[in-house]
Amino acid sequence: MHTLLDRPEVRDALRALDAEACQAFARLLSAREAVVLQGRFLGHPPRRWESLGRSMGIARDRVRQLEAEIIKKFDAWQGAHEVQPPQATS
Asked: Are 63 and 49 in contact (CB under 8 A)?
C-alpha cells in the first residue's frame, strides 16, 4: 500500500492538473477520499494523518488507507487519460 511518503510525485502530478481535470478526478472519489485529497494532496502545507483523522472522526490509519486508495485511483485515472501520441501517416 503506497502513500505519499512512497509516491511524492503523485502530489506534484495532482497539483499540475488544471482545475477541470482535477475536478473530473475528484468526482471519482468518495466523500471521505475527497476530504483527504484536499487535505493531504492539494493542501499547502499538507495536513497530517492525525489531524485529518481527528477532524473526520476516523483513525489515523484509516486516513492512510484512504490516501493509498486515492493513489491507486489516480494511477488508473491518469493511465486512462494520457494523451496518445499522434499516429504517423505514410
From this structure: yes
The CATH number given to whatever domain includes residue 26 is 1.10.10.10
Measure the CA angle with vertex 84, ends 33 and 28; round to 5°: 15
- Three cell numbers at 10? 503523485
Show the DSSP H helices in the chain as ranges: 8-16, 19-26, 31-36, 49-56, 60-80
Q: What letter does residue 88 receive in the DSSP assignment?
A: P
Q: By three-state DSSP, how is residue 39 classified?
A: helix
Interval 12-30: pLDDT, tens:
999 999 999 999 999 999 9
Quick one: cell of 63?
486516513
